[in-house]
Amino acid sequence: MLQLPHQPLQVAPVPSQRAPAREDQAGPWHSEAVCRRDEAGLFFAPSKEPTAARLSREVAAKQVCAGCPVMVECREHALVQPEPYGVWGGLTAAERRVVLARRRRRDIELAAAPAEHIAAAG
Predict the structure, then answer these.
(1) Coiled-coil region(s) at which residues (predicted)?
(2) Residue 5, domain member (yes or no)
């Protein structure tokens, strides 16, 4: 049975809105995606996939993403949509849910911060 070492979720900072279109390229961001050359099955789970197989497949998909020139754009697309399945921008669906929850908490804290600052100053 394949055992993978536990690694904490590492999320690259991404802007809260979709990154602007890449002006240095003629086509949309996904035309430059490395995964366009790989089989989609690497990025999306087959039905009833065993856990060990899923983890191994996700690691392989993330390795492809790590070398992709449009990884940040892909990740942001998946967060903005939000894409409910598959590996996008180096994150699984579960990891994207964590990022979205952190963003929501951050946005709430930032919205509350000015009110707390005014109350403390008064």
Answers:
(1) none
(2) no
Total tally of structural domains belonging to the chain: 1
Nearest alpha carbon to residue 92 among 80, 81, 103, 84: 84
Q: Which residues are annotated as part of the binding site?
A: 35, 65, 68, 74
3-state secondary structure of 88: strand
Q: Which domain holds residue 51?
A: 29-96
38-69 pLDDT, tens digit per residue, is 777 899 988 899 999 999 999 999 999 999 99
Place of tokens 């598959």: 86
pLDDT (tens digit, 9 = 90+) per residue, 92-116? Answer: 999 999 999 999 999 999 888 776 6
